[in-house]
C-alpha cells in the first residue's frame, strides 16, 4: 500500500466558551495575563451534559455523516484520551453503539492513554495497521478527545475541550513520512492524575514547561538526524513549510519555535553562526539544559524566529487560541487550523512536522507530506471544505460569563461521582447533532441521546 495517511477529518468543540478577558477580570489577575501572557482568547468548556463518550460520539458521527462512510468499511477504530471515567470500559466500546446498529462488529483497536499523547499513539497504531500484514483492506478511524479542566488557580485558564476524528487509509492527501518518527520518552511527575476521585490533574506548571521544552529539544535533534539519513540536504525548520505543536496555550508554542531555532544555532559550527544568526554570538557558550527559563535566550530567539513563526506555525493556532487545550486532540486541532488557513493550491507538495507531547512523559516528532497528484488534490479540496464548515462554528458559540462558567464547573466537580444522576446542563445550547448524557443509573451505566 502507498501513501498511507489522513483521508478525512472532523473536529468537535463545545458550543459554550468563556472569554479570557472576562476571566482575567473575574480572577483578579493583571490585565493581559491570559490573553497576552498565555496567548489565549477564548476557552471552550462542557457542562455536566457532556462527557468523554458523548464528545467522541459527536466527532465520530459527524465524520461518518459528512463523508458518507459505510461503517462496514472500517476495520479499526482507535481512541486516544486522558479523560478517564471508567477504569475498565473503554470509550471505543461506547463508540461501537454506532457500528453495532449497522451490524458492523468486526472492528479492531481500543483506547490509548498517556496525557496528551494518546491521540498520537492511536494514530500511529492505525497507520501501522494499514501498513502491516494484518491489514484486511478496510480503513481505520482515530478519535482523539478530551475535556481539559483544572481546579481553581493559575492552571484553570489553560483548560479546554474537544475531539478530532480522522479517517486513515491508503492514497491519502496527507501522507505520513516513513522511518523518521523521533520519540523521547522518560519518567516525570510534571502532570498526572493519581486521584481517581477527581477530574483534576496534579500539575507542577513550571516543570511541565521544562519537560515539554526538553522533550522538544530531544525529538527535534533526533528527527533532523533521521531525516538527514534519507535526505542529506534536510535543513531542519528551514526545510519545513509548517511546524505544528501540541498546544497547551499559544505562547508556549511561540517559545517552542524559538527554542528550535536556538537548537539550530547550537548545532551550527561557531564559524558559520555569525552569518546565519547575526548578533547572537553572546549565546555561543550557552547550554541547552541550562536555558529552559533563560529570559535572554528566550527573548533573543523569539525575535529571531518572529517571521518563521508567522509563516510556519501561527496559522495552526486558530483553534487552540479560541478553544483552549484539547489535550490529545490539541495537535490535531492545530492540523485542522493549518489546513483551513490555506487553499489546496497552496498546500499541494508541502511538508510539515508535528510535535506531540504528553506529560509523564511521552513525545514524538513526525512529518506529513501533502500529496502532489491531482486525485489527492480533489480529496484535499473536499477535506478543507468540510473542515471550513466546522471551524466556522466557532463564531456560532455562546459566550458565558465567568461566574456562570464557575458554577457549571462546580456542578461537574460536585457530581463527578454521584449516581444515580440526571445532568442539569442545558440541551438547548448544544449544537445540532451533539450527543449528550441523559442519565447515569444506580449501576453507573450511562445513556446518551443525539440532539
Ligand atoms: N500582562 C501580560 N503578561 C502577563 C501578565 C500581564 N498582566 N501577567 C503575567 N503575564 C505573563 C507572565 O510573564 C508569563 O509569561 P512569560 O513566562 O512569557 O513571562 C505568563 O503570563 C504566565 O504567567 P506566570 O505567572 O508565569 O504563570 P502562572 O503561574 O500563572 O502559570 C502555567 C502558567 C504554568 C502555564 C499554568 O497555567 C499551568 O500550570 N497550566 C497547566 C500546565 C500546562 O499547560 N503546561 C504546558 C505543557 S503540559 C500540558 O500540555 C498539560
TrEMBL record:
The organism of origin for this protein: Parnassius apollo
Function as written in the Swiss-Prot or TrEMBL entry: Catalyzes the condensation of acetyl-CoA with acetoacetyl-CoA to form HMG-CoA. This enzyme condenses acetyl-CoA with acetoacetyl-CoA to form HMG-CoA, which is the substrate for HMG-CoA reductase.
Family annotation (PANTHER family): 3-HYDROXY-3-METHYLGLUTARYL COENZYME A SYNTHASE, HYDROXYMETHYLGLUTARYL-COA SYNTHASE
Pathway: Metabolic intermediate biosynthesis; (R)-mevalonate biosynthesis; (R)-mevalonate from acetyl-CoA: step 2/3
Domain Hydroxymethylglutaryl-coenzyme A synthase C-terminal span(s) in chain numbering: 174-451
Enzyme class: transferase
Residue sites binding CoA per the record: 251, 255
Pfam family, any one: HMG_CoA_synt_C
Catalytic activity: acetoacetyl-CoA + acetyl-CoA + H2O = (3S)-3-hydroxy-3-methylglutaryl-CoA + CoA + H(+)
EC number: 2.3.3.10
Listed InterPro entries: HMG_CoA_synt_C_dom, HMG_CoA_synth_N, HMG_CoA_synthase_euk
Start and end residues of each Hydroxymethylglutaryl-coenzyme A synthase N-terminal domain: 2-173
Name of this protein: Hydroxymethylglutaryl-CoA synthase
GO BP: acetyl-CoA metabolic process; farnesyl diphosphate biosynthetic process, mevalonate pathway; sterol biosynthetic process
Keyword set includes DNA repair: no
Annotated family: Belongs to the thiolase-like superfamily. HMG-CoA synthase family.
UniProt keywords, alphabetically: Lipid biosynthesis, Lipid metabolism, Steroid biosynthesis, Steroid metabolism, Sterol biosynthesis, Sterol metabolism, Transferase
Active site: 82 (proton donor/acceptor), 116 (acyl-thioester intermediate), 246 (proton donor/acceptor)
GO molecular function: hydroxymethylglutaryl-CoA synthase activity
Top-level taxonomy: Eukaryota, Metazoa, Ecdysozoa, Arthropoda, Hexapoda
Amino acid at each position: 500500500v502507498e501513501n498511507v495517511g489522513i483521508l478525512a477529518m472532523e473536529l468537535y468543540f463545545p458550543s459554550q466558551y468563556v472569554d479570557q478577558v472576562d476571566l482575567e477580570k473575574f480572577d483578579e489577575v493583571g490585565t493581559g495575563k491570559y490573553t497576552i501572557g498565555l496567548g489565549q482568547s477564548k476557552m471552550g468548556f462542557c457542562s455536566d451534559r457532556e462527557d468523554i463518550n458523548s464528545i467522541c460520539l459527536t466527532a465520530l458521527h459527524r465524520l461518518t455523516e459528512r463523508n458518507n462512510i459505510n461503517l462496514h468499511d472500517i476495520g479499526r477504530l482507535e481512541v486516544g484520551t486522558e479523560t478517564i471515567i471508567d477504569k475498565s470500559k473503554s470509550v471505543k466500546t461506547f463508540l461501537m453503539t454506532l457500528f453495532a446498529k449497522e451490524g458492523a462488529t468486526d472492528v479492531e483497536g481500543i483506547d490509548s492513554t498517556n496525557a496528551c499523547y494518546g491521540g498520537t499513539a492511536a494514530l500511529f497504531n492505525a497507520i501501522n495497521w494499514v501498513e502491516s500484514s494484518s491489514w484486511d483492506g478496510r480503513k481505520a478511524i482515530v478519535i482523539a478527545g478530551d475535556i481539559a479542566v483544572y481546579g481553581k488557580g493559575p492552571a484553570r485558564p489553560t483548560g479546554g475541550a474537544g475531539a478530532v476524528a480522522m479517517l486513515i487509509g491508503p492514497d491519502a492527501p496527507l501522507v505520513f513520512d516513513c522511518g523518521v518518527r523521533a520519540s523521547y520518552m522518560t519518567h516525570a511527575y510534571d502532570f498526572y492524575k493519581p486521584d481517581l476521585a477527581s477530574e483534576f490533574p496534579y500539575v507542577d506548571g513550571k516543570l511541565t514547561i521544562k519537560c515539554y521544552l526538553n522533550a522538544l529539544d530531544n525529538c527535534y535533534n533526533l528527527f533532523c538526524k533521521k531525516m538527514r539519513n534519507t535526505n542529506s540536504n534536510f535543513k531542519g525548520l528551514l526545510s519545513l513549510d509548517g511546524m505544528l505543536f501540541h498546544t497547551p496555550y499559544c505562547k508556549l508554542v511561540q517559545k517552542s519555535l524559538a527554542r528550535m531555532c536556538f537548537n539550530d544555532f547550537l548545532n551550527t559550527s561557531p564559524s558559520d553562526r555569525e552569518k546565519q544568526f547575526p548578533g547572537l554570538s553572546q549565546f555561543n557558550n550557552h547550554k541547552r539544559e541550562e536555558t529552559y527559563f533563560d529570559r535572554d535566550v528566550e527573548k533573543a530567539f523569539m525575535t529571531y524566529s518572529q517571521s518563521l513563526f508567522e509563516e510556519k506555525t501561527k496559522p495552526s493556532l486558530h483553534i487552540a487560541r479560541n478553544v483552549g487545550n484539547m489535550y490529545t486532540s490539541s495537535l490535531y486541532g492545530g492540523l485542522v487550523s493549518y489546513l483551513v488557513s490555506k487553499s489546496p493550491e497552496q498546500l499541494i507538495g508541502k511538508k510539515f512536522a508535528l510535535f506531540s507531547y504528553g506529560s509523564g512523559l511521552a513525545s514524538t516528532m513526525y512529518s506529513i507530506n501533502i500529496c502532489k497528484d491531482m486525485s489527492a488534490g480533489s480529496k484535499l479540496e473536499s477535506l478543507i471544505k468540510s473542515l471550513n464548515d466546522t471551524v466556522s462554528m466557532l463564531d456560532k458559540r455562546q459566550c458565558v460569563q465567568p461566574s456562570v462558567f464557575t458554577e457549571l464547573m462546580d456542578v461537574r466537580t460536585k457530581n463527578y461521582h454521584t449516581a444515580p444522576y440526571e445532568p442539569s446542563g442545558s440541551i438547548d445550547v448544544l449544537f445540532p447533532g451533539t450527543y449528550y448524557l441523559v442519565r447515569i443509573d444506580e449501576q453507573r451505566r450511562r445513556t446518551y441521546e443525539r440532539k
